[in-house]
């Protein structure tokens, strides 16, 4: 297969990240609205992420999970994560899918 | 209209939820107060116990997660004592004037945790016991205010035990020996927590009042059903195994056995009686006085300041 | 404003780097210490509710310290702060938060004076030209909002306990006073002035101190604890001269102790 | 302002999502409104509420109740 076809895309990265859950909520980090930016260039994925609180105890765990998940994608050779607090996360960032999912398991937001 | 105890049990059996003290018989009220006190004391004492272990955590992240858990435990205790106060109990005296030995938490919290590893195992074992016991109350509870309060408790205790499980998984490779040592004394400790076997204790009233749904042995079995596979899955030894014929978990030692407090070691070849266990529980363990002192310190200081000349 | 943003450490004018490093280190270390101090009272508050609130605030402070340590990593010449080694001798904390609080009123005074002083300084970075600082500030201030309410609520409750508690409180406020009130820097900001000049901070020194005193002045007056400050026009000023001779600008603490 | 240990009770109400009724989630004891807000927020943090309120218990005035003593007391 030509190298170009194996190059990861932004959509591919987002789809993969939809499988990474926030350990505190049964919802992916994408649906939680924690992913601010995604960049892909020459096999390097650059992510800008936020968290719900600066004291989020799961920050390290989530970043490890993201790395594990993205490095398994064909063509990804490095993952660079930047944590951003600007703008601060708010409940408005939850996707409708997250709201439905959270409601279903009784942890409605 | 005064109700007899039999009438109340019948109504509760039909699904009635009690909402106020006016609807209770004295026996129901006493039973409720007893169970609530055990529950609130247990949540409360876990705070100084977990905090003492959290002081030695390896990273700031660990400290933050320990504090998050402690905050939950204190909130759960608060919910219990608030309900007790609305039932007419003098919670001021209950929390701040009670002799440490009179606190009604399980003996497990009288044995101080010494490390981050032990705190992780406490989350995986002790908070799982809390989750099993309170989940049982939550699903059956006939007292409305507590039942509603337990929705939060149920959810958060589940988070704590997952925190413990994840911690054990992450540390299983690098801290194998320390984890096994913690499991060796904390596993039988949690098994004992569930109390006298059904053959020695009946819970007619508590179950009739729907302040409890299952018996001690059933609850112990529920705990074993998830705790044993967790440990075995990670390759740790536990003194219990699954028996296919009965689809039950069976202990590999005669419950109860003697516990060496100083060495924190179970003497598996020294069976004792439940009476002996009750004596140890009543005597309380090495951390009891210190933990209760931590809990009462701030209020005592305030009182002294107000009264001082 | 049309002034361009300073989007990374290399864009900072050279003379602003050392004072910025000192300030961020001190902010982070003080928040780290406050987090530990609040946490020590998790199971010892005078009420269970008080313990819950202290535990929540402890997590916020530790979270903020972690965010600010992250900011230090980008700054040249910044001291290395691995998470648990900070106390090893060069912590830039004020003396009041160096050691465990001996009583709950100590925690409240730290909450009211030290914690709030740090927050007011952070507020001067809300529109900072230095992007990495600006991007972290709003979140931190948002999370601080209830700390102020907590400190104010408890001060009034303690003061209402009677004259003995008020005299104890008064003595504790004296202990923490200079640490908090000098924290904004002298006059026009002292060592922080170059940061104001290039727009890394909006203001420093007296301007921030005035705002701080206007915030706590009426509260201390209502609590019967205003012996260290007096009303002056529409604001408040310290009743006694501040001990600038003892103030260490780079460590942002008093030299003694 | 009440003495420590003698704080009045506040009932805590919250809403999870738009369109849902405000519901009673519990209570806190606090010396005044300020601390009641702080306590409600740090104790009942099990959900990301979109609204959270505290109401002094004495401000909750019974109108009807199957527990007649509550209503009679206010008659």
From TrEMBL, chain A:
Transmembrane intervals: none
One Pfam match: FeS_assembly_P
Domain MIP18 family-like: 11-83
Lineage: superkingdom: Bacteria
Name of the molecule in the record: Metal-sulfur cluster assembly factor
Species name: Candidatus Segetimicrobium genomatis
UniProtKB/TrEMBL annotation, chain B:
Single GO biological process annotation from the record: phenylacetate catabolic process
Single GO cellular component term: cytosol
Entries under InterPro entries matching the protein: Aromatic_CoA_ox/epox (IPR052703), Ferritin-like (IPR012347), Ferritin-like_SF (IPR009078), PaaA_PaaC (IPR007814)
PANTHER family, alphabetized: 1,2-PHENYLACETYL-COA EPOXIDASE, SUBUNIT C (PTHR30458:SF0), PHENYLACETIC ACID DEGRADATION PROTEIN PAA (PTHR30458)
Protein name: Phenylacetate-CoA oxygenase subunit PaaI
UniProtKB/TrEMBL annotation, chain C:
One GO cellular component term: cytosol
Superkingdom field: Bacteria
UniProt protein name: Phenylacetic acid catabolic
Pfam families named in the record: PaaA_PaaC
UniProt GO BP: phenylacetate catabolic process
Transmembrane regions listed in the UniProt entry: none
From TrEMBL, chain D:
InterPro entries named in the record: PaaB, PaaB_sf
Short name of one Pfam family: PaaB
Source organism per UniProt: Candidatus Segetimicrobium genomatis
Domain of life of the organism encoding this protein: Bacteria
Name of the protein: Phenylacetic acid degradation PaaB family protein
């Amino acid at each position: 297969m030509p190298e170009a076809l194996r190059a990861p895309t932004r959509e591919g990265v987002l789809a993969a990240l939809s499988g990474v859950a926030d350990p505190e909520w049964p919802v992916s980090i994408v649906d939680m609205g924690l992913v601010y930016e995604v960049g892909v260039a020459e096999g390097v994925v650059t992510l800008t992420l936020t968290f719900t609180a600066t004291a989020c105890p799961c920050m390290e765990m989530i970043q490890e999970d993201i790395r594990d998940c993205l490095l398994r994608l064909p063509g990804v050779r490095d993952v660079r994560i930047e944590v951003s607090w600007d703008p601060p996360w708010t409940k408005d960032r939850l996707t409708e899918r997250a709201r439905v999912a959270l409601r279903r398991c009784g942890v409605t937001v | 209209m005064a109700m007899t105890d039999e009438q109340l049990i019948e109504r509760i059996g039909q699904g009635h939820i009690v909402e106020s003290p006016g609807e209770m018989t004295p026996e129901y009220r006493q039973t409720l107060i007893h169970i609530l006190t055990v529950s609130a004391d247990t949540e409360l004492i876990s705070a100084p116990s977990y905090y003492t272990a959290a002081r030695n955590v390896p990273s700031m992240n660990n400290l933050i997660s320990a504090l998050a858990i402690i905050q939950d435990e204190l909130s759960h205790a608060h919910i219990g004592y608030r309900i007790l106060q609305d039932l007419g109990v003098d919670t001021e005296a209950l929390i701040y004037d009670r002799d440490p030995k009179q606190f009604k938490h399980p003996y497990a919290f009288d044995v101080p945790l010494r490390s981050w590893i032990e705190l992780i195992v406490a989350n995986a074992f002790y908070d799982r016991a809390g989750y099993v016991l309170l989940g049982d109350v939550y699903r059956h509870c006939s007292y409305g205010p507590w039942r509603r309060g337990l929705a939060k408790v149920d959810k958060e205790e589940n988070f704590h035990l997952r925190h413990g499980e994840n911690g054990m998984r992450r540390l299983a490779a690098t801290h194998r020996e320390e984890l096994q040592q913690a499991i060796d004394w904390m596993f039988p400790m949690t098994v004992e927590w569930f109390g006298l076997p059904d053959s020695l204790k009946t819970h007619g009233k508590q179950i009739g009042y729907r302040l409890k749904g299952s018996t001690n042995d059933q609850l112990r079995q529920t705990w074993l059903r998830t705790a044993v596979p967790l440990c075995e899955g990670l390759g740790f030894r536990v003194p219990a195994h699954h028996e296919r014929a009965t689809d039950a978990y069976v202990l590999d030692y005669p419950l109860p056995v003697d516990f060496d407090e100083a060495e924190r070691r179970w003497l598996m070849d020294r069976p004792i009686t439940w009476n002996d266990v009750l004596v140890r529980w009543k005597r309380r363990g090495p951390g009891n006085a210190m933990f209760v002192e931590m809990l009462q310190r701030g209020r005592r200081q305030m009182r002294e300041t107000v009264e001082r000349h | 404003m049309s002034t361009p943003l300073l989007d990374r450490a290399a864009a900072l004018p050279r003379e602003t780097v050392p004072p910025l490093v000192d300030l961020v280190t001190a902010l982070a270390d003080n928040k780290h210490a406050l987090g530990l101090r609040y946490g020590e009272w998790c199971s010892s508050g005078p009420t269970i509710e008080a313990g819950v609130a202290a535990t929540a605030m402890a997590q916020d402070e530790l979270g903020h310290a972690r965010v600010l340590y992250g900011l230090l990593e980008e700054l040249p010449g910044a001291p290395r702060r691995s998470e648990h080694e900070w106390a090893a001798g060069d912590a830039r904390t004020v003396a009041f938060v160096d050691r465990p609080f001996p009583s709950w009123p100590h925690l409240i005074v730290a909450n009211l004076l030290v914690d709030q002083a740090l927050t007011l300084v952070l507020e001067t970075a809300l529109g900072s030209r230095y992007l990495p600082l600006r991007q972290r500030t709003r979140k931190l201030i948002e999370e601080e909002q209830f700390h102020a309410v907590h400190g104010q609520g408890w001060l009034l409750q303690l003061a209402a306990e009677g004259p003995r508690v008020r005299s104890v409180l008064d003595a504790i406020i004296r202990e923490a006073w200079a640490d908090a009130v000098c924290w904004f820097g002298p006059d026009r900001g002292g060592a922080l002035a170059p940061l104001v000049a290039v727009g890394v901070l909006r203001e420093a020194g007296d301007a921030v101190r005035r705002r701080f005193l206007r915030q706590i002045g009426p509260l201390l007056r209502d609590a019967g604890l205003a012996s260290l400050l007096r009303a002056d026009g529409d604001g408040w000023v310290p009743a006694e001269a501040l001990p600038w001779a003892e103030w260490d600008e780079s460590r942002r603490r008093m030299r003694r102790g | 302002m009440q003495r420590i240990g003698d704080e009045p009770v506040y009932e805590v109400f919250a809403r999870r999502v738009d369109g849902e009724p405000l519901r009673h989630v519990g209570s806190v004891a606090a010396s005044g409104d300020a601390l009641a807000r702080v306590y409600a927020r740090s104790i009942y943090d099990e959900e990301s509420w979109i609204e959270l309120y505290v109401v002094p218990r004495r401000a909750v005035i019974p109108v009807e109740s199957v527990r007649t003593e509550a209503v009679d007391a206010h008659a």
